[in-house]
Write a structure and sequence with these properties.
By secondary structure, this protein is mainly β. Helices cover about 5% and strands about 40% of the residues.
Length: about 375
């Protein structure tokens, strides 16, 4: 019996080894260290720094992160890559918590010592910490320039012009490398495109323009790309473009408050020129012609007449609808009377130009 029991036990041990699955090799517990940030960017505006990056999804040992992760922002002098960073020398500038696998934004106050003096480069980093305050290393470096920021834009106002929108601001002292950056956004546009748009691309929804302020600041500029009969919104911002250690960096001033304009076209076409009058005795008419107007939104012309002989006032003789060709035959004339003629141009918005200089002609008896 004892031998049989031992044999059975031995047999069972063999079955246990060969018939049951083994557990995986034991692994060390995760330290919950978030992977380092790889796409940190920084934009300086006045005395503030706007940082943007994407939070990682996993820890360094590929365990999915759960819940908000702690982020520590710090900076060092010089344009240094992350591999040359001494974390002990990195000056703290703020902390926050951010969910994993999401875009992250953080606004840091630029230290007072970085807001004045000769511009130089500094490097900002983000470190993601676990609950024990440990980190897998800093992010990539985001470089910014120190020194005084350009003055904020004040007094922004807009005016319509026959050639676009005039943007005006309170002028300031010019500075080498300074530009005025105008950001224009399309708010609404007419249902029917302007004639200038019919054969080309419509105006973009957003566009950024620059005005050089290195030598002078005129306090305004004409935006010729802002098509009339649209509603536009503008912001303006002075930006200082500098070179630090062979790298192009920017210091932006505080942007203006947005200003909106309904840029209605209230500007008439040019006054017609080259008006001539010729008698057509056979047709008993006076034939008029003039130089065509080249305005893209022109719809036609109105013709006006005054009976000089009868000393009457001016009247429109071309009807209520503008004539399209640059010519007109006046057949409602009296032989022996002398007439004065003038022509005006009309655009799609109903804006009518002043009348041309008069010409005189009469039909013989």
């Amino acid at each position: 019996m004892k031998s049989a029991a031992l044999a059975l036990a031995a047999s069972g041990w063999v079955i246990l080894l060969t018939g049951c699955g083994l557990a995986a090799n034991p692994q060390p517990p995760t330290l919950w260290l978030p992977e380092p940030v790889k796409n940190l960017t920084a934009v300086r505006v006045g005395d503030q720094l706007e940082l943007h990056w994407t939070m990682p999804r996993h820890t360094t040992d590929q365990v999915e992160l759960k819940g908000p992760q702690r982020a520590h922002v710090c900076w060092v002098d010089g344009l240094k890559p992350a591999q040359h960073l001494d974390l002990k020398a990195c000056h703290a500038d703020g902390d926050g918590e951010f969910p994993p696998d999401k875009p992250a934004s953080f606004t840091a106050q630029l230290p007072a010592e970085l807001n004045s003096g000769t511009p130089r480069g500094v490097s900002f980093f983000v470190e993601l910490e676990n609950r024990a305050g440990k980190t897998a290393g800093p992010s990539n470096a985001a470089w910014v320039a120190t020194g005084a920021a350009p003055p904020a834009v004040t007094g922004l106002r807009l005016e319509t012009d026959a050639n676009g929108v005039v943007v005006r601001w309170q002028a300031a002292a010019p500075e080498p490398g300074m530009v005025m950056r105008l950001h224009r956004t399309l708010v609404t546009q007419p249902k029917a495109p302007k004639p200038s748009e019919e054969n080309g691309a419509p105006p973009p929804q957003e566009q950024t323009l620059e005005v050089e302020l290195s030598r002078s600041d005129a306090g305004g500029a004409l935006d010729r790309d802002a098509t009339l009969d649209h509603v536009w919104r503008y912001t303006a911002q002075r930006v200082l473009e500098i070179n630090v250690d062979a790298r192009a960096l920017e210091i932006a001033g505080v942007a203006s408050e947005p200003v909106t304009i309904d840029a209605k076209d209230v500007f008439p076409p040019a006054v017609p020129t080259g008006l001539t009058a010729v008698v057509d005795e056979q047709a008993k008419a006076i034939d008029l012609s003039w130089t065509p107007d080249t305005a893209p939104d022109l719809v036609g012309y109105f013709v006006y007449r005054q009976d000089v002989t009868a000393a009457t006032g001016w009247e429109r003789v071309s009807g209520t609808t503008p004539v399209v060709p640059p010519s007109f035959d006046d057949r409602n004339v009296v032989p022996g009377h002398r007439y004065a003629y003038a022509v005006s141009a009309v655009d799609r918005d109903g804006n009518e130009s002043a009348r041309s200089g008069p010409v005189k002609e009469g039909l013989p008896q």
